[in-house]
């Protein structure tokens, strides 16, 4: 029999794990000893809090990030084919959502390996829920272009879609580039356009605020190097 791939949600950090991750999810991964992870250090920290404290050295942790070649990912699939269950862990949040782990999931489906998504919070949907924006017609755009001119053009396009189609636009950025993204939004968008900033959700210091772009210019929030979701 083939093994199963468990998709394991993780916290953004800074909170009691059991306040965020359901007990059923933690129970589901209790017997797994092989994990594919985006970042080794944060995965060890998460697994230690999830019940593996003192056992981390006995686990097999395999990296999968944006630099991992397909040839290496195929070796992970072979492990599953031989009957061993495996967990997939992103650096933060849901695996395979704006995350390189999606390639492993894709290959598992091609090999008829069962994929089991486990319950946990999604900052994307938490931000949408709390934004006051259209929750029936929305688009998640992931990461916007890194180059400022391309990013500004994309922001302008998303603003247009939001206004002409009534389609809520959701996007994220690497935390250390949050302020550059916010600066571009404030430069490109109309002062009357509403922007929701959802920062460090599920963490005690987290917040969700919806303001017009013109108002954000007067009160730039402290989001530097903090996981943040933007809703336009």
CATH superfamily of the largest domain: Tetrapyrrole methylase, N-terminal domain
CATH C-level of the largest domain = Alpha Beta
Q: State Rg.
A: 19 Å
Shape: elongated
Count of the domains: 2
Number of strands: 10
Main β-sheet, spatial strand arrangement: 3-2-4-1-5
Q: Which blocks of ≥5 consecutive residues have pLDDT under 50? A: none
Question: Which structural class fits the helix and strand makeup?
Answer: alpha/beta
* CATH architecture tag of the largest domain: 3-Layer(aba) Sandwich
Task: Describe the protein.
The protein is an alpha/beta fold. The protein has 2 domains: 5-117, Tetrapyrrole methylase, N-terminal domain (Cobalt-precorrin-4 Transmethylase, domain 1, 3-Layer(aba) Sandwich), CATH 3.40.1010; 123-231, Methyltransferase, Cobalt-precorrin-4 Transmethylase, Domain 2, CATH 3.30.950.10. It is 37% helix and 20% strand. It has 9 helices and 10 strands. The strands form 2 sheets. Strands 3-2-4-1-5 form a 5-stranded parallel beta sheet, with helices on one face. Helix 3 (40-52) links the parallel strand 2 (34-37) and strand 3. The radius of gyration is 19 Å and the shape is elongated. The model has no long low-confidence stretch (mean pLDDT 96).
Outline of the structure:
With 232 residues, this protein is α/β, with parallel strands linked by helices. It contains nine helices and ten strands.
């Amino acid at each position: 029999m083939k093994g199963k791939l468990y998709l394991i949600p993780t916290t953004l950090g800074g909170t009691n794990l059991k306040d965020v991750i359901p007990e059923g999810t933690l129970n589901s991964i209790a017997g797994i000893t092989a994990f594919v992870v985006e970042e080794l250090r944060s995965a060890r920290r998460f697994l230690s809090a999830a019940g593996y404290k003192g056992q981390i050295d006995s686990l097999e942790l395999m990296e999968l990030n944006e630099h991992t070649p397909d040839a290496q990912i195929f070796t992970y699939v072979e492990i599953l084919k031989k009957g061993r269950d495996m967990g997939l862990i992103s650096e933060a949040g849901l695996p395979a959502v704006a995350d390189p782990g999606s390639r492993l999931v894709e290959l598992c489906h091609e090999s008829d390996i069962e994929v089991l998504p486990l319950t946990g919070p999604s900052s994307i949907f938490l931000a949408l829920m709390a934004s006051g924006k259209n929750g029936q017609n929305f688009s998640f755009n992931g990461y916007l272009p890194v180059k400022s001119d391309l990013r500004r053009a994309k922001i302008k396009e998303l603003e247009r879609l939001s206004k002409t189609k009534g389609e809520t636009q959701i996007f994220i950025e690497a935390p250390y580039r949050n302020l550059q993204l916010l600066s571009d939004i404030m430069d490109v968008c109309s002062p009357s356009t509403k922007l929701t900033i959802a920062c460090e959700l599920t963490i005690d210091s987290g917040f969700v605020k919806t303001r017009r772009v013109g108002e954000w210019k007067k009160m730039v929030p402290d989001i530097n190097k903090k996981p943040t979701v933007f809703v336009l």
